[in-house]
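Hi V.,

You were right to ask for the full record rather than a summary. Here it is.
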Amino acid sequence: MQYDPTNPFIVQGDRTILVEVDNPKYAEARDQLAPFAELEKSPEHIHTYRLTNLSVWNAAAAGMKADAMVETLSKYSKFPLPGNLSTDITELVGRYGRIKLTRHEDKLLLICPDKPLLEELARQPKVKEYLGERLATDRFLVEPAHRGVLKQALVLVGYPAEDLAGYTEGAALAVELRPTSRSGMPFNVRDYQREAADIFYAGGDARGGSGVVVLPCGAGKTVVGITAMSMVKKNTLVLTTSITAVKQWIREILDKTDMPESDVCEYSGDVKNIGPITVATYQILTHRPDKKEEFPHFKLFDQRDWGLIIYDEVHLLPAPVFRVTAQIQARRRLGLTATLIREDGRESDVFSLIGPKKYDVPWRELETQGWIAEANCTEIRVALPDDIRMDYAVAEWRIKYRIASENPAKEEIVGRLLEHFRDKNVIVIGQYLAQLRSLQKKFDIPMITGQTPNDEREQLYGKFRRGEAKQLILSKVGNFAIDLPDAHVLIQVSGTFGSRQEEAQRLGRILRPKASGEQAHFYTLVTRDTKELDFSHHRQMFLTEQGYTYTIMDGSDIVGGCVKPSAY
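Predicted structure:
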């Protein structure tokens, strides 16, 4: 094969791929690389991707072959691929599914036709303790209770199992989608939403029924979950991040299905009703009066014969819920998320216990099709005032980050942006309450924090949706699962260190398509020459991987009026 020196990839033997951002083929190459590689670094001109075990296995689970991965690398590489790489990828893809879990009467079977490999795995301490009686040279009995923890152990030793043991059917539920929503609007499931639900359900086959659907915020992940409910037609438990998200799910289920209100129940800190469809918060599940006690609300998993459990924002799944999920592997499990990135590094547990990635659409593809708004991302770099620079210089590093994040010079930038977008719906979001309260006082904008009562939150969200309030300040409660369909502009004044998932969620707050078809604007304010700038680069990596680029602006240009309004 002839290699083209104008191509954007330099593929290296350590499984890293260097990608030239300024190359004309960059966008198409990135879109073909992203399904099986992870972005590690994203400075201005050269991005670094890496082939990890998990990225390759997720691609394999979604049906991508080793040949397709090697072909993509070859197609866009400047130089011949390292001799070991094709073999490494083929071997790594081949590891997925060499071990299978199947049903055997009231037990499970672990089957591996490769007898030396099975012998090796059976001697691994992490695996050995979960294996039962050896029935033949290629199989072991496994207790159903060990299904989840055995899958976790197999991923850790490098041989992820394909789980074909099937599911407990669960109690039947006659649920149908409405052709016209209860609110009177026509309701059609979009092609990609239907495809995601179809791939998850797989016609009821054991090869379906567990896995993760990855779609950007604003692309209708809730509709994917509701469509899956209508396919499975069993009692369903939905787990999500907040009371606001619970109410959003309930609104959507009642609006788009024929379920009566009495059958769609809320289980939260406020209300503890259980019905055929129950929507609960992770917070209530992980609440316990004493850290030495068990989690009293885990009993929710056993209080009905669930046929489907939906994990909303699965990248935020709390560690204790992994534990209980390991015990309920016989239930169908659907994870929904905008990003598989977890800041605690437990992506392999999502893979093992919820399931592998089953469906993913690049954000830019949905943007091109008009399903999410086109987004313009801008980083505004603000200088630290002279009277604060000495405090910053002598501070401990975590305090440095906070000083930089709460830079008071950001307030003037916020004011200029609010004035420029005074006719648009604008969200100001940040990490630190003192900073947000100062902005609230200065600009007289309503604010929602974790301490805001739920009734008041709903009222403020309602006013914002209806356009009665054009501006809203949100603390971290604004990161997840909030239905703000008319937000045009988001101004991020501070973020959580280097959280890539947070950056993705915050951009998602403004990606719902606008009636006028106009662009969404995402501004992140960063203090230059500080720790905050370093962390902001890390936060932006996920969006860079999705094809978004950040325009860099200087705060002094905005304050000084040197930039034409159209530029921001």
